[in-house]
Amino acid sequence: MEIEFKGRDVYLDKELTLYDKLALNFSDVLKKHDVNHVYVSGYVALIFGRSRISEDIDMLVEQMPIGEFQALWSSLYSSGFYCHNTKDCYTAYQEYLDKKIAIRFSENDRVIPNVEFKWASNEQHERALANNLEVHIPGGSIVVSSLEIQIAFKLFLGSDKDIEDARYLFELFKERLNQKALIDELAYLEIPLETAKEKLGWQHEP
């Protein structure tokens, strides 16, 4: 897999996975409605080549009025997606999203993988939306949260799988990472620098 950076754009020459195809197809519908969104968490490692199984890909979406959500919901269904949680748009909006509960969408012929769709509802989510990379892959492009935010967040989650995701991204991009931005994210999540260095194998240069 070849990776080329041009500012905030990343170009990948890769064979698409099932996760990539799902992410592309779902994003295409959101883009038609000018919905601000970003993929986060494990999928950021997966799109850059990490090999592991996942049931879902996580997405943060800027909150929108019910009318706009209804139009998006209709487009998703007409584009071959369905919601696991409910068939009713208003229930999805009022009983799930507005209560900070994610909803899940799959393509009609599948259950797994699925897109975990939730509102950006705190400061960290807003930073993930604002600090992103547009990743160009065969067939289109998708937007993922910044590498520094995702590495820090994965360390914060702390499971073996999450730490391996963080280490994978760090090793792959350590020559390109903004160290100050990474340190700021670690501080925001109250992760000691020494802990991060140990888990990432990071020879930090002040």
Brief overview, please?
With 206 residues, the chain is of the alpha+beta class.
How are the SSEs placed, and which strands pair?
Layout lengths: L1 E5 L2 E5 L4 H15 L4 E4 L1 H6 L8 E6 L4 H13 L2 E3 L5 H8 L6 E5 L6 E6 L3 H8 L1 E6 L2 E6 L1 H11 L2 H14 L5 H10 L4 H8 L6
Parallel strand pairs: 2-8, 4-7
Antiparallel strand pairs: 1-2, 3-4, 5-6, 6-7, 8-9
Helix pairs in contact: 6-7, 6-8
Tags for this model:
alpha+beta, 2 domains, four-stranded mixed sheet, 9 helices, globular
Give a structural overview.
With about 210 residues, this protein is of the alpha+beta class. Helix content is about 45%, strand content about 20%. It folds into 2 domains: about 15-135, Beta Polymerase, domain 2 (2-Layer Sandwich), CATH 3.30.460; about 145-205. The chain is built from 9 helices and 9 strands. It has a 5-stranded mixed β-sheet with strand order 3-4-7-6-5. The chain has a 4-stranded mixed β-sheet with strand order 1-2-8-9. Strand 6 and strand 7 form a beta hairpin. Helix 6 runs antiparallel to helix 7 (about 160-175) and helix 6 (about 145-155) runs parallel beside helix 8 (about 180-190). It is globular and about 50 Å long. The two termini are about 30 Å apart. The mean pLDDT is about 95.
